[in-house]
Amino acid sequence: MTKAIVFDLDGTLIDSAPDLHQASNRLLADLDTEPLSLETIRSFVGNGVPKLVERVLKARDLYRDEARHASMVTQFLAHYDAALHDKTVLYPGVVDCLDALKAQGFSIGICTNKPEAQTRAIVKGLDLERFVGAIIGGDSLPVKKPAIEPLQETLRQLGLGVASSSDDVIYVGDSEVDAATAKAAEIPFFLFTDGYRKSPINQLPHTVAFNDYAELEYLINSKWS
Ligand SMILES: O=C(O)COP(=O)(O)O
Ligand SMILES: [Mg+2]
């Protein structure tokens, strides 16, 4: 039976906050408004781009209504598309870890709240395509995490039935949203502690916590040994 490891993207495999920060501040500059700090933008990531843009606008008291918000999301994405991974980096050890997991025969998926098109472009640009068998983004389905459907759809595309998933699957993520998703889906959750979480580790439901990708293969194999 195939086993699968599904990863979140932002704050888990990649540190994407610097490019999200730049796009946010370019949007604010279009609106003749002062920039926000990297730390602030990092704290806004995890619920998808529309929510990030809403938080950016509200932080500068610029949120008006849904129609304007929708056009700001489009404007943000134009800035983001112009520099999707200029400053974005993989966390140390990610490539070696994915290599090792792939070599062991694990199926690998990505389940993120980032829009699918931008996710695919970044995955390609950072040369991760060869590892990944399924990608579900925040706009791939009508709902996004913490709804469980995106994670279930990732597993379905990897060829795993939902019924068997709790025994054969691990979800790896960095945030409150990921922990809640895995818990609701009854899937073991490995928490990468150096991502964008806002809560203390002990307040996030998790199976295993780690901060070094050099340890992840061992931790995964320990769970199934
Ligand atoms: O909020 C986003 O756009 C993406 O965040 P995620 O990759 O951590 O799900
Ligand atoms: Mg994340």
SSE blueprint:
Blueprint: E1 4-7, E2 14-15, H1 17-30, H2 38-44, H3 49-59, H4 66-82, E3 89-90, H5 94-103, E4 107-111, H6 116-125, E5 134-136, H7 149-157, H8 165-168, E6 169-173, H9 176-185, E7 189-192, E8 208-210, H10 213-223
Parallel strand pairs: 1-4, 1-6, 4-5, 6-7, 7-8
Antiparallel strand pairs: 2-3
Helix pairs in contact: 1-4, 3-4, 5-10
This protein binds 2-phosphoglycolic acid and magnesium ion.
3D architecture notes:
By secondary structure, the chain is α/β, with parallel strands linked by helices. Helix 1 crosses helix 4, helix 3 (49-59) crosses helix 4 and helix 5 (94-103) runs parallel beside helix 10. It starts with a strand and ends with a helix. The protein is globular. The strands form 2 sheets. Strands 5-4-1-6-7-8 form a 6-stranded parallel β-sheet, sandwiched between helices. The chain has a two-stranded antiparallel ribbon with strand order 2-3. 46% of the residues lie in helices and 12% in strands. It has helices spanning 17-30, 38-44, 49-59, 66-82, 94-103, 116-125, 149-157, 165-168, 176-185, 213-223; strands at 4-7, 14-15, 89-90, 107-111, 134-136, 169-173, 189-192, 208-210. The chain folds into 2 domains: 4-15 and 88-223, Rossmann fold (3-Layer(aba) Sandwich); 17-82, Putative phosphatase, domain 2 (DNA polymerase, domain 1). The protein contains 10 helices and 8 strands. Residues 8-11, 45-49, 52, 112-114, 138, 175 line the site of 2-phosphoglycolic acid (PGA).
